[in-house]
Amino acid sequence: MLKAVILIGGPQKGTRFRPLSFEVPKPLFPVAGVPMIQHHIEACAQVPGMQEILLIGFYQPDEPLTRFLEAAQQEFNLPIRYLQEFAPLGTGGGLYHFRDQILAGGPEVFFVLNADVCSDFPLSTMLDVHRHQPHPFLLLGTTANRTQSLNYGCIVENPQTHEVLHYVEKPSTFVSDIINCGIYLFSPEALKPLRDVFQRNQQDGQLEDSSGLWPGAGTIRLEQDVFSALAGQGQIYVHLTDGIWSQIKSAGSALYASRLYLSQYQLTHPERLAKHTPEGPRIRGNVYIHPTAKVAPSAVEHTCVLHSIVGWGSTVGRWARVEGTPSDPNPNDPRAHMDSESLFKDGKLLPAITILGCRVRIPAEVLILNSIVLPHKELSRSFTNQIIL
Prior knowledge:
Radius of gyration: 22 Å
Number of helices: 8
Number of strands: 26
Mean pLDDT: 82
Distance between the termini: 36 Å
Shape: globular
Largest sheet: 9 strands, mixed
C-alpha cells in the first residue's frame, strides 16, 4: 500500500502570497480553476495502490478546508485527512510528529509534496525508480540556470548512480544547476533520521532549559537538517524531470502556474477547458471559465484586463485598462524559472502583477488576457486566453 503527505504550512507574517491569502487559505486558492492542492490530490489518487492522503499544516480546520476535504474524499474515493500541528514544525517536524498516522497500515513508501509547487507530478515514475533501486529518500529534481539556482535547494549528484553527494539550501555561490522540486518519495526508514534530529534538538534544548520542555525540539527542516546531513552517505537519490514545474510563492507565480496547468488540460482534463459552441463566445487558447461566470456570445474590446488578478467583489468599469507587468521566466532560457518576489519591496508596490481588491463587478464588453478573476462575478462579454475563476 501507498500513502501521500501534502505539507500545506500555515499563515505567516510577511507572506509573499498576500493579499491573495487574506480571503482564502493559500492551499485553497484557485489555480487553473481548482484549489491549488487539488492538483496534488489528483496526482496522488492516480497512483495505483494509493490508500490514504494526509494533509499536514497549522491552519485552523475552518469550514472552507473541511468542506474541501469532504468533497475531495467523495470525488476521489480515498480517505483524505487533515492533521493540524500544534505549532509550525518546519518541513520535517510534522512528518515526525504524525509518524504513527503516516505509518499506520504499513505503507511500502509514502510521497511527500510541498503544497506551493506546480508540477505534472511524475509520481508513478518515481515509484518505479524506487522499486528498481530502493533507498530511504528519493528527491524530484529539475534544472535551473546558474543565477536562479541560488534561490533553491541545490543538488550535486553522481551522474551514473544519481546519488545525492551534496545538498545546499539556497547557497550563496553557485553549487549546481540541479534544484530540489519539493516532491519526494520516502520509505518508512526515512523517519529514523528525523527521529535523530528530534532527539538531538531535545538534548540541545535541555542544555538551555532545565525543564526539558523546550518547544523547539519538534522543529525539523528536511532540507538543512536531513538532506544536507545525509548527502553522500548512500541514502538520498534524485530523479530528474523535464516536465512542468514552478513554485507558487507570489501572486505572479499563481498566474504562471495557471497557464502551465491549463496547457496540460488538453491531455489531463479537457472537460475543464472552454470550447467553441455556435451560441457561445469565441475561445482562443486554453481557457477556463468558472461555472458562475456568464460570457455573452458577442464581445468588443472596450475594457481590457491584462496580467492581473481581480479579487472578490471588485469593480472594473467600462473603458478601463488594468494591466500588470508579466513576470514570467525568460522565454529565451529553457532552464529559467519563475522569480517569486515579494509583492512589496522597500515600501513600494512592485509592478510584476496587478491585484484588484474586494467587491468586483465587471461590466459587459470586457477583454481579459492572462488574468485570474475569482468566483461569483458579473462578468464580461469577451474573454480570450485567460483564466476566469
